[in-house]
Design a protein that fits this description.
With 256 residues, this protein is of the alpha/beta class. The chain contains nine helices and eight strands. The N and C termini lie far apart (98 Å).
């Protein structure tokens, strides 16, 4: 019986192209030669920054100046799977903000609340921020909670993870709607005016200098930080002699 000569192993087997993953912000930074190891550094890490490359040299070059783009990576290299968070994990690292807001009868007296947790401090740092207005809306208070929290921090180089139960806020930031509204003179794609332009403008200005992720968390689902924000919002909405939300009441008066 004739046996053909064995082909070299490199010819008979098609080896997968080696990939390297550069992690610029995560539990541990550096170059990793397999995705599971790289993923363990970025999964659940607020503001994680990472990218895949076909060669170590390219990965090292990017790590020196980690410019991140949402476009497809050049040369056909697929980006590592994005770590998506649609509900709040039990965070115990970094700078974390929870926010909530609402208005009684919407529109009506409204309040907002935010809890800022700094897990990098020892002991862990905690700050609560809240406020309210005599006449406003749910969405305006959701936005004000984010604005008030970020104003208290100023511009930071540290990554921030913000959690809100408002799909209106999270989607408008993550899907780029708010930025498009501003570029279009606060007109939506249907040419109708975008609501709450005054607050969106403030929030976009605040986030411009930050490394921040906006994450949706289900409200009234037992998350202690979300529940605390809700308590703060309700308490403030029920206060007497609340200030005027001129961004809302002023507009209402002008349209009458």
């Amino acid at each position: 019986m004739y046996f053909p000569p064995l082909l070299p192993l490199a010819i008979r087997l098609k080896w997968p192209k080696k990939k390297y993953y550069a992690v610029a912000a995560g539990r541990k930074t550096g170059i990793f030669d397999n995705w599971p190891l790289a993923e363990s550094q970025v999964k659940g890490w607020p503001g994680a920054r990472f990218k895949g490359f076909p060669s170590r040299r390219e990965a090292e070059a990017w790590l020196k100046n980690p410019q991140y783009s949402t476009r497809a990576v050049r040369r056909g290299v697929k980006r590592p799977p994005t770590v998506k968070i649609n509900k709040a994990p039990d965070n115990r690292e970094g700078l974390v903000i929870y926010t909530d807001g609402g208005a009684i009868n919407n529109p009506g007296p409204g309040g907002y609340g935010a809890v800022i947790i700094d897990y990098d401090l020892d002991p862990v740092g905690r700050q609560e921020i809240s406020g309210g207005y005599r006449l406003t809306t749910n969405n305006r208070m959701e936005l004000m909670a984010c604005i008030a929290a970020l104003r208290s921090l100023g511009v930071l180089e540290r990554p921030i993870a913000l959690y809100s139960d408002s799909s209106y806020v999270v989607n408008a930031i993550n899907k780029g709607w708010a930025r498009k509204w501003r570029l279009n003179g606060w007109l939506k794609s249907d040419k109708k005016p975008a609501r709450n332009a005054d607050l969106w403008d403030k929030l976009l200005n605040l986030t411009a200098g930050l490394t921040i992720t906006f994450n949706w968390v289900k409200g009234h689902a037992g998350n202690p930080l979300n529940e605390r924000c809700d308590q703060l919002a309700v308490q403030n909405a029920r206060q007497n002699n609340l200030p005027v939300d001129w961004g809302y009441e002023g507009k209402e008066l002008n349209e009458r």
